[in-house]
Amino acid sequence: MRRIEAYYPEAEKIVVDTDSKDGSVEWVRQHHPNVKVLQVSNRGYAFAVNQGLENATRHWIVEMNSDIYLEKGDLEALQIALCNNPRAALAAPTLLTARGTIQSHGLFYAPYYWNLLQPRAVSWVSGALIMTRKTTLASIGGMDERFFFYNEDIEWCTRARRKGWQVLLVPRRVLHLGGSSTPKDPRFIAEGYRGGLLFTRDYYPSLHGLHQKAVWLEAHLRLHLDPSPLRREGYRQILKMLKEGNLEVSLLTP
């Protein structure tokens, strides 16, 4: 928050709190009285983001995790990319880990980083930091709230592209601690797989059956081979979810 106020003092700042019990709301109100705090029930990350998007009033909107560390010029780089590409709906930076390495989003995402010298149209970008326009939201809508945690950024970007927009990865490097606010709870492991299956079911139905089989096989193998009791419990919950065939309800739903 200090960095945002230092580099972007005129920005409209909104913090969405999902029923925290650690006194963070009181701390923000005491130390940053110019920040608008929205207190909502914990209905997932996408729901919280949408509350912020709906309350934002400026033309340029930035959705950002609490473990992003901005430097001067970061948001301007995203804004310039969107201005130069009027058919682009969403723009995000290249995220760095605390060790200074590029954050991995999987094997198939890695080629997007190759020779990244200017903004590049990609299939999706991380929801840790995304810039868009208020007017664009009228076309693409907010995040899909069926995704309680994980995969909501992939769905958002895919929906934008299917509506004819582009999604840009910008060669501006921004520090993201990543996972610092994710609890050590096996349900979060299961939620990641649930969201992925929900995504292929809705967007790539011809691949969904194969995806289910692959998840079933992986969960069985990891259940017997993974040394972590927490992760094994997560894979046990995945198998239970597959058996019941219910992808609509998250295990994290209160």
Give an account of the 3D structure.
With 254 residues, this protein is of the alpha/beta class. The protein has 9 helices and 8 strands. Strands 4, 5, 6 and 8 form a 4-stranded mixed β-sheet that branches. The protein has a two-stranded parallel ribbon with strand order 1-2. The chain is globular. It starts with a helix and ends in a 10-residue tail after the last helix. The model has no long low-confidence stretch (mean pLDDT 95).
User: How would you state the average pLDDT, rounded?
Assistant: 95
Shape: globular
Distance from N terminus to C terminus (CA atoms, Å) equals: 29 Å
Number of strands: 8
Helix/strand/pairing class, anyone? alpha/beta
Computed over alpha carbons, the radius of gyration is 19 Å
Order of helices and strands: HEHEHEEHEEEHHEHHH
**Biggest sheet, open or closed, and with what strands and sense?**
4 strands, mixed
Strand content: 15-25%
Helix content class: 40-55%
**Number of helices, where a helix is a run of at least 4 consecutive DSSP H or I residues:** 9
In the predicted model, the low-confidence regions spanning at least 5 consecutive residues are none
